[in-house]
Amino acid sequence: MSQNVFLIxxxxxxxxxxxxxxxxxxxxxxxxxxxxxxxxxxxxxxADDSGNGSTFERMxxxxxxxxxxxxxxxxxxRVGTTFEDEDRWASGTFWTAFxxxxxxxxxxxxxxSVPKRGVNRIFDYSATYTPGFxxxxxxxxxxxxxAIEAALAAYTARNASE
Length: 162
Prior knowledge:
The chain has 162 residues and is α+β, with helices and mostly antiparallel strands. Helix content is 25%, strand content 31%. The protein has 5 helices and 8 strands; from the N terminus they run E-H-E-E-E-H-E-E-H-E-H-E-H. The chain has helices spanning 12-20, 53-57, 89-94, 116-122, 145-158; strands spanning 5-9, 23-24, 40-41, 43-47, 64-69, 72-84, 100-115, 134-135. A 6-stranded mixed β-sheet has the order 4-7-6-5-1-8. Strands 2-3 form a two-stranded antiparallel ribbon. The termini are far apart. It comes from Halorubrum vacuolatum. This is EVE domain-containing protein.
């Protein structure tokens, strides 16, 4: 199983529409082939203008996804299916101002609330580091993906009253 970790900035409006809440795909008979047999899915993408095609190509089923907005990581999940959506069906159907052909589904979605500095500490980045869409280097992933998820969930539970 892959041990990749991806740090992913999000637009809250689009994120809420297709990740925080799964999309009911039965309403869309014209969906792309990789989604043809799914009744629902959580969908996200790499924006066409990001230039991170090689990062997207490294995504594999089971990789850890950490989503952030502003100064907080707001959710975690695992990569499900990745595919090229040449017709931009997903971005044209669900997202505003977010043209994308590199689509992936999210499995094992969990809302979290962890300050950026906390996640930066896990991967030995400076407290103020703000990543773009990126894969964390292997040398910075010193725990299992399950242990990382457990630490983030524990922090979220411990600080839920903040």
